[in-house]
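User: Structure please.
Assistant: Input sequence and predicted structure:
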Amino acid sequence: MRTFLSIIKNNYLRTLPRLMPLILYTIFTLCSMLLAVHMTEVRQVKGHIVLIAERPYETLPKSTENLSVVVLKEKPPHSALVKQKYDAYVTIDNKGNYQIETLRNKDYQQMLQMFLNNPQAPVDTGKTDRGVGTNIIGFMMMFLLMLAFINLFAFAEEKEQGQLKRIAAAPVSFLGYLLAHCFYCLSMVLPEFILLIILELSGFEIGFTLLEYAGLLVVLSLLSISFAMFLNTLIKKPDNANMLGNSIVVLTSVLAGSFYVFSKNNSMLDRIIKLLPQKQLMNFAHYLEQGTPWQHSTSLLYVIAFSVVLMTFSGLVLRFKYVK
């Protein structure tokens, strides 16, 4: 316990000269959370569909309360789907069948097909759209994963400068030393949780209860800390570990759909994406918001197991290298 408290105190003191980058990352994360709340409110109003037809037939589906239909003579560029300006392009083949092009999932395509076949029928977009809670977790995910590399600066510096050998040789608990760094990183997520409390008290819909958010943030922090420690253990230079780690985090977070759910109907790519812990955490958050979390608890267990494996591997490598 003495080692644990000393390392915690030391980390906070060493943070003071590094406050500016830490504050900037925290501001970006908080802004992303607010953006998620705003975009969810906008997206829950309507889906934007472009119906490509040479002339405006009277029989074509019209806009409803949930879906906005725009009839154009030419199909807009594919980049408009990527930018989320539109949710889908619909063309009509020679037999009168609707052909749907979208970056969203199959559920959304099926919902859209039902609407096109019967525009008068009620269309429920709630089961296919992500809620505000899932969006908040998704939007903050990438920033929190990258933030762990900044918060582990003390551990990375001590390892690079060879001070880790002295610490391991000293009469202190090596496990307590590592746990102190993890607890310090976890405590730096407090501003994000405080923002959630403020949003809740201000009457905003945030999707989950504060207790559920606390649990999800702990799991997300466990993933970020274990991954940052894993790379810093394998790579000597902290800058190289940060650069590689941030690149992996950005790529995998986008593929996992943390900002926007998309599918290219590529079975191989879909299988790879399912292996990403970010994707599994997003799935669990979605099911939690739908009220069926325990039927899909394997997604959450996958993320925890993935993090524990990385953390255990890092601990064993460090013990083998430095503890004699």
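The radius of gyration is 24 Å.
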